[in-house]
Amino acid sequence: MSLTRLCAGLVTFALLASPATSQAQTPSVRIMDEPGKGHLTILIGPVDLPSMVMPGEHMEHAAHMMVLPPVQTVTVPIDAYLYGFGFDVADADGKPVPNQVVHHLNLIDPDHRELFLPISQRIGAVGGETGNQEVPGAIKYLVGVPMKAGQRVVVSLMLHNPTPTDYHGVTVRYYWKYVKGGRRWPLFSLQPFQLDVAFPAGDKSFDLPPGKSSKSYEGKPAVPGRILVIGGHLHELATSLKLEDATTNRLIWEGKPFTDKDGTVNRLPVGYLYRKLGVKLDTSHAYRVTVSYDNPGADTIRAGGMGVVAGVFLPSDPWPTVDSTDPLYAIDRKHYLRELNGNYSTLLAEEAAVANPPKRSTNRSR
Question: Which residues contact 363 (CB under 8 A, 6 or more apart)?
Answer without folding.
Answer: none
